[in-house]
Amino acid sequence: MSATLSYFGIRHHGPGCARSLRKALDALRPDCLLIEGPAGAEAMVEHLRDAQLQPPVALLSYGVDDPQLAVFHPYAEFSPEWQAMRWAVEQGATVRFIDVPAGASLAWQRARRERFAGEAQAQPAGEVAGEGEAQSPQELADDAARIEAAPAASETRAEGAAPVSASEPQAEDAAEPTADGHGQRDPLDWLAHAAGYADGESWWNHMVEERGDGEGLFEAIAAAMAELRDHAELGNGLDPREEALREAHMRSGIREAVKQGFERIAVVCGAWHVPALAGKATAAADKALLKDLPKLKAAATWVPWTYRHLSSASGYGAGIDSPGWYEHLWRHGGSQGRTVGWFARVARVLREHALDCSSAHLIEAARLADTLAALRQRPAPSLVELNEATLSILCNGDDAPMRLIEQALMIGERIGSVPEAVPTVPLQRDLEAQRKRLRLKAEALSKPLELDLRNDTDLQRSELLHRLLLLDIGWGRLGGAGRSRGSFREVWELAWQPGFEIELIVASRYGQTVAQAATARAIESARQAERLPDLSRLIDRVLLANLPDAVQAVAAELQARAAVDADPLSLLAALPALANVQRYGNVRNTDAAQVRHLFDGMLARACIGLTIALGGLDEEAAGDARETLLAADRAVALREDEAQTATWRGALRQLALALSATPLLRGVATRLLFDAGAFDGEAVARELGLNLSLGAEPLDAAHWLDGFLNRNAAVLLHDDAVWGLIDGWVSNLGHEHFLRVVPLLRRSFAEFEAADRRDLGQRVKRPLGAAPAAAARSSWDAARAARALPLLRELFGLEPVGDAR
After folding, report:
1. Region (Disordered): which ranges (predicted)?
2. Which of 198, 450, 510, 547 could form a disulfide with 517 if both were Cys (CB 3.0 to 4.6 A apart)?
């Protein structure tokens, strides 16, 4: 008995296709389903029997020897391939994936990366991508990642299963459609333009996904695709050879199923492939074509996915505009409650954000949506009509609530889940165990997490997030309040990304637990660091992550580097991160003795050659050195050690008095000493008179003054002696000299706060030595004010004092 072959051309993530496919499978009752997916990954289908495997999820295939080579095959609940696999598991039918094995896709991905890297290196410096500048190694690596992320040959919108590389595809890689179809990325644009639609997306939604029935759908799709393959062209960026290999492999898979004796075979594939798979092609020709198919050793697993990464806005080549809307279509389909159910969800979102939305609003919005659909000769409102009605009635024409609805409903916040039985590397299992123990839920939507570091559970949560940051896994990002180093409080923003699964697999080479991997990664970073400030910041990070072994290793590396580094500015730049350890030491119960020893030694060495190092700097270098001096001064204050403070102020005094040093930095040193009380008014007046005298070069004097003012107007507002000297210097400048220095003076005064500039203007108006105008006395009735005291004391929980009447 010959086998019956049925071809079902679908679009990936299409709820209309999925619904029609389920009906067709119920009618056909196939004993074998051949699905466009990576051959050899059939064992992963068995996990669909586990109720904990909840879409959206992705079938992840990665290189065993190079985990950074990876391909995702995402599925949502409304993806036709997912529903086909569900049907097969429920009915006991055999499932086979017939696309090229993941090892072939990974080999192609590696070849593209190597080819691009070779072309970029061969390109002359200064002629890269039309930018006119040579690319750095990091830029070359980023560009290579973008090439890996470029959509593969199957990632057109008429396609079925569309793989995603480990890096997200870039939306700008898509070719723009043209009126005649040449260079179109989406072949459906041909049919859309013929039917009067703007693009293939809207046409396909109307004709397929938003329809309530699917009778004869797959026959119509096959006929349309056959016509397109004869007359249309796939867009630029697609590799014809890879496309031919994929179709040859799928045909070979179909022949193998027929040979094995299956009677009713259903082939579920991208719509574009149907004519090629159902057409005539000899087994010998396909075998010859596949003879040299490259392969790498690959492994597969399931990982959680998100609706945001299913959306076309993420750059995913087979993405859809509104995953949340497609989920609504899947669940409510052609039912009459589709419109009402959608508006009910819109109302819930608006009310959760304290926006007015009454029942009358909803009734009028539903009427408007139905009217618009009738005017456009549509059987039911599509998302276009629903959005227009929402904007007009519920949002009063305001786009801001519509953006809220787009994120919450049209795209959605759903993230899938994967059962523990799914194969993972030990590092993934350790992280999952810690997440459960610390009650940290992986969610796609960014959520704030406030931690009190005095609480043991919150402290362990903070340490876990910091360890993941050391592994370049940015699940958590410290918020503004969390950067207050002396606080017991940290505020994080948590948002889980599917790509972190790849990062975990890549990081597994460092260790089997998060602590082991983060320690090994930190030690490697310390050995690769090129500058002392990088090492000192790394010490701060490993202390926050509570990794004692890493602290010792990084500290030893820092000490060895500091011993041979002769640049005082480099040593000073490393101090602020070490000083932060002082502030966190008590909160996190860390031993900062080794860090204090490092701090003291580096400060002493920096102070020895500071004056010489700061001479003869140009304006830009002097500006950078000023920031280093100011940061080092704050670090010494945090150290809170009298001996180190005295050493630092001695170095600043030498700098302030050294005429060989850059004027800007001499001015900064003078101001720091004055603010600390190490220079009295007489000493400051002497330095002002010396540096702002008529014999001083005006530009040097202006630079010195810029450093002395240090973006703080307090000394001008409250010290008459300083004010008089600066006022006299400016008044005695000649016209030519004044024109030379006024831009620098204006820049210096522009750094003051607006209120300080206003007070300075008032200060200019009054004569030198005159007291500021007294504030007008306000009338004050003490007896009347006392009447409120008993109530205030009661409100604040204070004991009454005497008779407040």
Report:
1. 117-187
2. 510
Cα distance between residue 420 and residue 430, in whole Å = 12
Residue 305: CB atoms within 10 A of its CB come to: 28
Amino acid identity at 540: D
Per the CB < 8 A criterion, the answer to whether 658 and 687 are in contact is no
Calculate the CA 534 to chain-centre distance.
22
Residues 6+ apart with CB under 8 A from 232: 181, 184, 187, 190
Question: In which element (H, E) is residue 570 found?
Answer: helix 568-573
Q: Mind listing the pLDDT tens digit for each residue in 497-511?
A: 888 888 888 788 788
Mean pLDDT rounded to a whole number for the chain: 80
- Residue 266 identity (one-letter amino acid): A
Per-residue pLDDT of 158-167, as tens digits, reads 444 456 555 4
Q: How far is CA 778 from CA 396, 774, 775, in A?
A: 48, 12, 9
Per-residue confidence at 429, pLDDT binned at 50, 70, 90?
confident
- Please report, as a single letter, which amino acid is at residue 285: A
Distance between CA atoms of residues 738 and 621, nearest Å: 25
Task: Provide the token pair at 583.
Answer: 């502030």
Answer yes or no: is pLDDT of 172 > 60: no
In sign, the C-alpha dihedral spanning 59, 62, 68, 69 is negative
Per-residue confidence (pLDDT) for residue 584, from 0 to 100: 57
**Residues 254/34, Cβ–Cβ less than 8 Å:** yes
pLDDT for res 656: 84
Helix/strand/coil (H, E, C) string of 653-696? HHHHHCCCECHHHHHHHHHHHHHHCCCCHHHHHHHHHHHCCCCC
Q: Residue 1's Cα: distance from chain center in Å?
A: 57
The pair of three-digit structure tokens given for residue 641, joined into one six-digit string: 């050690």
| Helix, strand, coil percent content, the chain, rounded in steps of 5 | 60, 10, 35
Residue 22 structure tokens: 């389920």
Quick one: pLDDT at residue 694? 64
Asked whether the beta carbons of 38 and 101 are under 8 A apart, the reply is yes
Per-residue tokens: 797: 């929980």
Q: For strand 70-75 and strand 264-270, is the pairing parallel, antiparallel, or unpaired? A: unpaired
Whether omega for the bond prior to residue 772 falls within 30 degrees of 0, making it cis, is no
pTM listed for this prediction: 0.67
CB burial of residue 607 (10 Å; 0-12, 13-18, 19+) = buried
- Contact at 8 Å (CB) between 577 and 541? no
Taking a C-beta distance cutoff of 8 angstroms, is the pair 268, 285 a contact? no
DSSP-assigned letters across all residues of 707-776: HHHTT--HHHHH-HHHHHHHHHHHHT--HHHHHHHHHHHHHHHHTS-HHHHHHHHHHHHSPTTPPPPPPP
CA 98 to chain CA centroid, Å, is 35
pLDDT band at 768 (very low <50, low <70, confident <90, very high): low
CA dist., res. 751 & res. 713, Å (int): 9
For the ranges 194-208, 228-242, 310-324, 601-615, which has the lowest average pLDDT? Answer: 228-242
Q: Which of the 8 DSSP states describes residue 63?
A: E
What is the number of other CB atoms lying within 10 angstroms of the CB of residue 633? 23
Strand order in the sheet with 264-270: 4-10, 264-270, 32-38, 94-99
**No. of H helices and E strands in the chain?**
37, 11
How far is residue 109's CA from residue 143's CA, in Å, rounded to a whole number? 14
Rounded Cα distance, 759 and 764, in Å: 9
Average pLDDT over residues 689-695: 70
Rounded CA separation 546/468 (Å): 12
Token couple for 215: 């009778």
CA–CA gap between residue 536 and residue 577 (Å, rounded): 6
Is residue 402 within 8 A of residue 410, CB to CB? The reply is: no
DSSP β-bridge partners for residue 7: 267
Q: Calculate mean pLDDT across residues 726-755.
A: 73
Phi first, then psi, for residue 780 (nearest 5°) are -140, 120
